[in-house]
Specification:
arginine-tRNA ligase activity, EC 6.1.1.19, 3 domains, alpha/beta, 370 residues, Gyrase A, domain 2, Arg-tRNA-synth_N, Isoleucyl-tRNA Synthetase, Domain 1
Length: 370
């Protein structure tokens, strides 16, 4: 679908909303569509909801919600997300299958650049537990972007926390002359940990240090160990375990995944709409989160902020958990596995792959069972 055709699709959606009495506005003569801006997603975005909000006498987000249903139902549209004050972000057909294939083909290296960039960065940090963990993880993230990295610490790591947390560094001491120290690309000094994180164990301890932004004070509390949905680390690891469980269950039923169309068929849409919030839980939200993983890696590398990766893993996990709750991935009873089941399973496996890759970069285990 070209931008001109998509613009006409958007205008038809407005006209349908007007004809249904959902909006009381004059249908505009044109609807601008363009690649999404910062904070956007999908293939194209339009501000038509903001344009119509005042004439309709409604908040722009409410107008966007009305239009989203009509645009989502249009042929050639895979999904629609609302961002900001009411921008409609549209994903077109064809992209979903290609995205899932790419993730499954590349595995945990999805999001990595293909060739070295020739850039070199040296990371130097004090002998402090959060700085050391941050330096190790940031080096891994920078390498995904084709950057050659060398790490150093002011002095030898303290084995009391380096061993339990799995922290390593390539060199100790001040790297060369004072002038050379001033030339370092990055001198890592995140806000120090207020107390020893090792009692939390390797996974929770690293998450407690990496999930907050470097300028925020980390919380070293037992909250990181609780196995309930209020704990972001639990949600991320649980989502990975659920994805792996779906693959095992499918194998027991005698079928495997095959990327394809994960959108519900017309016969399924009516039953899905029985839930008021169902449209928020359909694949486009998960597809958007998966497509946003490579940009999240790039941002984490450019801003020297591993928390950007950790936070995006939470986004992926939450989108996947909503998806698998709202979508019947596996056949029930005597039902035979269909192409739709295989496509949904492939999408679930893609989510698990992204979660596994991201957790690996953070140095955190991705469990098969939880």
């Amino acid at each position: 679908m070209t931008p001109v055709e998509l613009s006409r699709t958007v205008l038809r959606a407005v006209r349908r909303a007007v004809d249904a009495g959902e909006l009381s506005v004059a249908v505009p003569s044109r609807a601008m569509v363009a690649p999404p801006g910062p904070g956007g997603c999908g293939d194209y975005a339009t501000n038509v909801a903001l344009q119509l909000a005042r004439p309709a006498g409604r908040p722009s987000l409410q107008v966007a919600e009305i239009l989203r249903t009509h645009i989502t139902d249009a042929e050639g549209v895979s999904g629609v997300e609302i961002t900001g004050a009411g921008f409609l972000n549209i994903t077109l057909d064809g992209g979903a299958e290609a995205l899932v294939r790419d993730i499954l083909r590349r595995g945990v290296r999805y999001g990595y650049v293909d060739e070295p960039t020739g850039r070199i960065q040296r990371l130097h940090h004090p002998c402090e537990v959060r700085a050391a963990v941050t330096g190790q993880v940031l080096a891994r993230i920078l390498r995904t972007q084709g950057i050659l990295v060398r790490t150093s610490c002011e002095r030898e790591l303290d084995p009391a926390w380096a061993g339990p947390l799995g922290v390593t560094v390539e060199a100790h001491g001040r790297p060369g002359t004072p002038a050379a120290l001033e030339d370092l690309d990055v001198n890592l000094r995140p806000v120090p940990a207020p107390e020893d994180p090792t009692p939390l164990g390797r996974d929770a301890g690293r998450w407690a240090l990496l999930h907050p932004a470097p300028h925020d004070r980390p919380r070293i509390t037992a909250d990181h160990l609780v196995q309930r949905e209020t704990n972001p680390l639990f949600r991320v690891r649980y989502a990975h375990a659920r994805a792996r469980a779906l693959s095992r269950n499918a194998a027991d039923l005698g079928f495997d995944s095959a990327p394809g169309d994960v959108r519900p068929k017309e016969s399924q849409k009516e039953s899905l709409k029985e839930s008021q919030n169902e449209t928020n839980n359909l694949p486009p939200s998960l597809l958007t989160a998966l497509a946003g993983y490579p940009p999240a890696l790039t941002t984490a590398a450019n801003q020297h902020a591993p928390d950007r990766l950790a936070r995006h893993l939470v986004v992926v996990a939450d989108a996947f958990l909503r998806y698998q709750e709202a979508t019947r991935v596996l056949p029930l009873g005597d039902e035979k596995p269909s192409a739709a089941h295989r496509a949904r399973l492939a999408l679930a496996e893609a989510a698990g792959t992204v979660l596994a890759g991201g957790l690996s970069l953070l140095g955190i285990d991705a469990p098969e069972h939880l």
